[in-house]
Amino acid sequence: MRRLLSLVPLAISSLLVGVAAAPQAAQAVPAGFVDVEVMSASRPTAVEALPGSRMVVLEQESGKVLVRDTVTGQVSTAADLDVCANRNERGLLGFTHDPSFSATGRVYVFATRSAGGDCVNRVSAFTMVGNTIDVASEQILLDNISSINGNHNGGDLEVGNDGFLYVSTGDAGRDPRGNSGSAGSNDAAQDLTILNGKILRVDRLTGAPAPGNPFTGPTSARCATRGVASAITNCQEIFSWGLRNPFRFAFDPNTSDTRFFINDVGQGTFEEVNDGIAGANYGWNSREGSCPRGETPPCSGPGDLTDPVTSYGRSVGTFITAGGFIPDGVWPAEYDGGYLFSDGGRGRMWLLDADGDVDYDNPFTTTSAGLADMAFIAEPGGYSLYYTLNGSGTVRKITAPTADAESPGPAVYAPLPSPERAFDSREQSPPAPIRGGQTRLIDLGTVTAVPDGATSALVNVTVDRPQGGWFATVWEPRTTRPATSNVNALNGEIVANSSVVPVDASGAMLLFVESTSDVIVDVSGYFVDSAGPASAGRFVPTDPDRLIDMREPIGSTNDHTRTLSPGDATADGPSEVTRHRVPVAGKLDVPASGASSVAVIVTALSNGTAEAGWVRLTAAGQRAGTSNLNTDAGFDQRNNLVVVELGTDGSIDVDLFKTDQVLIDVVGWFTDDSQPPSTAGRFRLVPPTRVADTRVGLGFGPLGADGTAELDPAVVPASASALAQNLTVAPATTLSYVTVRPTGTDLPEVSNLNSTANGQIRAATAFTRLGDGSETVFSLFPTQLVVDVFGYFE
């Protein structure tokens, strides 16, 4: 990243030439933050998160790809690649993983390789299995990108939300075509017939130019393997240009669009952060920052160029390197919408806040020189900012202050007039799944206002075709991430599960996904503070009992009426939807009057349908644009807990789409305002806690055939009337079911959680009445079971 004569190493190039500047004492991070060293590495460049509580660190000269377990701290070598690191800034520079990594193991590497006595840059894809990269699996996507002078290689890689692979390349320090010169005379960044000094965008599977790139047609050509194309044909891989050495760039994980910032190293006047825009020309080699090269403001720059988002001069820093967007809802609120970027020469890190302002006089932190890369990485409890120090050979992390989740006061249930869809990644603009290992701050009040005093929400979280084995955890923003899960799925499944999740004062929740998937969040209602006795919204648990079974003939104990036929134009949804009206009030232990809503276990049965289906429950006569339960194509049995309002006649409507039958089992009901005030049945949220995991002997051991176990959920008081929990088979061994019931009662004809085959991992929420402060778990066939408690009813 040299500034002037590219043939002479300068002291400020210490980041990538191995001549470490004198280490600076680490300054205090902001109050409450902690900065610690986590590992050493030989001249580390890139750091990247991997799904599965792992991270990758690259060693520039050795060519080693290191994998570190963020839980145990254990480090292993995933690959030892041959790299050309004989001069200056060459070597192993960039790494990223595919959105479908959890299913495919596909990763991407930017490295300098030897080529006939010279060195060129190459972008390759590999397959990673476990913690090992199969070197023989290499697929070359881009090759022969000039590294003629040894410096200004760029070297970063990211996959955008549009699914394409983005690559940064430097201007090679000297014109690869040989018709200009070096340093400021090098016009490679403006030469559209070569790949240097650009952001490239290609198909991540083939390396072909991405559709929508600026240059197409007969005056353009692919330059992917030739490096230098014909002098009259523009390179189709180019996304934007006019960059000197864009060593690092970063995408915003908080949005569905392809917003990203590019950190471009200047020569002698300005370092700059640029907004990644298709077809943008950022001006090098005619300017730095927003001024003609060598000038400072006030200045008049050339027209038709894209100005930087921010820039800084020599008095502030010497060469810009790492950058990263802060995940919203993870750090303190003032950091939401922020972007951190760093100077490798002076080890300073600044915050570009949500308003676009930077306080250059007050860095976020200052560390040793040689800061090369940064990445926000999920780990137990939350997120930390990891960064590499190329000069001192260390990797460090900064952790923000995070409060432990608290148990708010008692609350009563306030249903929405009808369930509302608060978030759907498929309907964002543009549609984009949430990436594995990332979080998303979701405002539940986007459609319907969150009531005052809301402490938690009853939501239904649906995962739509994850790319690999999947789980999600939902928790309160800016608190410690719990070691629990809310919904689980296997690769390609569509799965829904309800949960009561804590929300912050603005009505937002935080969602973490283990692997890339579309996610839908529907809200049914909220639990609202209730300091004293209350009439409405209290839960009355009942012993689980079957209300209807559509496999059996309709009768007095199986009472439902089909109100819509296939193709009925009044159906809310596709023509295949059928609606069944089910009387509830006055049946089982639900009173004929005084109940506002009923809590039921819905079991959907599909006996070989060709397509995925769904089930929706609403108050009788009501319409909703949501669903409660999804089934996969083929033979499938699914469960979910649903809290549904009763219609004016005490009935509910059950809509089926591509689903053969349902079973409905009642586990309790919520009071309306006609009931006398009481404190019994108010809801108490507790920090999500894993109370049983048979895989590790927590709570009880593995369940055998017809196996039972008694569970005493010690995280709730003995006086609790019912437990709110999430049950997960992890995994099932065969077609089976799990039932939880009050201890001391007979096994009912009810199931909370069904599986249909060996190896399935499935979850379902349960509201369970407690008997003498405990519950009894039954499994028809052997299984592993996990129980996470998130609340109880007084």
Please describe what this structure looks like:
- The chain has 794 residues and is mostly beta strands.
- Among the domains are: 58-333, TolB, C-terminal domain (Neuraminidase, 6 Propeller); 539-671, Jelly Rolls (Sandwich), CATH 2.60.120; 680-794, Sandwich (Jelly Rolls).
- The chain is 1% helix and 46% strand.
- The protein contains 2 helices and 53 strands.
- Strands 38-39-44-41-42 form a 5-stranded antiparallel sheet, with no helix packed on it.
- Strand 10 and strand 11 form a beta hairpin.
- The longest helix is centred in the N-terminal third of the chain and has 4 residues, at 14-17.
- The protein is elongated, with a radius of gyration of 29 Å.
- The N and C termini lie far apart (64 Å).
- Mean pLDDT is 91; it is low at 1-26 and 564-573.
Short key terms for the protein model shown above:
794 residues, mainly beta, Neuraminidase, Jelly Rolls, five-stranded antiparallel β-sheet, four-stranded antiparallel β-sheet, 53 strands, elongated
A few lines on this structure:
With 794 residues, the protein is mainly beta.
Q: What does the overall shape look like?
A: elongated
Report the portion of residues in β strands: over 45%
From the 3D structure, determine the CATH topology of the domain at 58-333: Neuraminidase
Radius of gyration: 29 Å
In DSSP terms, counting alpha (H) and pi (I) runs of 4 or more, how many helices? 2
**SS-derived structural category:** mainly beta
CA(first)-CA(last) distance? 64 Å
Count of strand segments = 53
CATH superfamily of the domain at 58-333: TolB, C-terminal domain
Helix content: under 10%
